[in-house]
Amino acid sequence: xxxxxxxxxxxxxxxxxxxxxxxxxxxxxxxxxxxxxxxxxxxxxxxxxxxxxxxxxxxxxxxxxxxxxxxxxxxxxxxxxxxxxxxxxxxxxxxxxxxxxxxxxxxxxxxxxxxxxxxxxxxxxxxxxxxxxxxxxxxxxxxxxxxxxxxxxxxxxxxxxxxxxxxxxxxxxxxxxxxxxxxxxxxxxxxxxxxxxxxxxxxxxxxxxxxxxxxxxxxxxxxxxxxxxxxxxxxxxxxxxxxxxxxxxxxxxxxxxx
Length: 258
Fold this sequence. Notes:
Blueprint: H1 3-18, E1 27-31, H2 36-51, E2 57-64, H3 72-82, E3 86-90, H4 93-99, H5 106-124, E4 129-131, H6 136-148, E5 159-161, E6 168-170, H7 178-185, H8 199-205, H9 207-221, H10 225-233
Helix pairs in contact: 1-2, 1-7, 2-3, 2-7, 6-9, 6-10, 8-9
């Protein structure tokens, strides 16, 4: 095994153990998008499954958005190489976007539909956990978006309950840098060319792309900024924030009689 895959397997294994992502008997559905992150996630979990004393089952799932250039064959090949069953669901996203006049914000609509379809599929097929390919850069960027958009001090959790579904969402790559994932993806014989027709628009004006560029700029000043943010997110000090639920404030002074 190459050094890059060893590093990813070690990081993912440590994160899985630390955040208790996998238990004996778990049935885990790996969500595959056709991109590098989910491909590396699947390969990593397959490697860990062969070595782990904890026995768990893997399956794959893909949401076909109906885009003309979406390469379902590549995803099917990934599942075959890892020896897992691939479940397919989907929707005609281009038609829905047109019907909803959502051309200016297609990702929000697509994401909601994809999430609901995958959650329902997992429950129908008897899986109790969904594995997503989010990594350390996603964690950091999501935190910055939430912070600057006034959404609270929050980000992507490593092991969280799915809203309105009897599932848990796990992110085994959450402490792994994207640069490491890109190096690993380069060793796979997979075509990762962009197939979303809205990719260019999102890259130019989307929040996530903007904050990714900001992270790159900040890295010039603080080279290990992602690891530092990871450390900070794991060391919350609520007494020094502004949420009244966590502040041990003195009782208000009684007013005068005048």
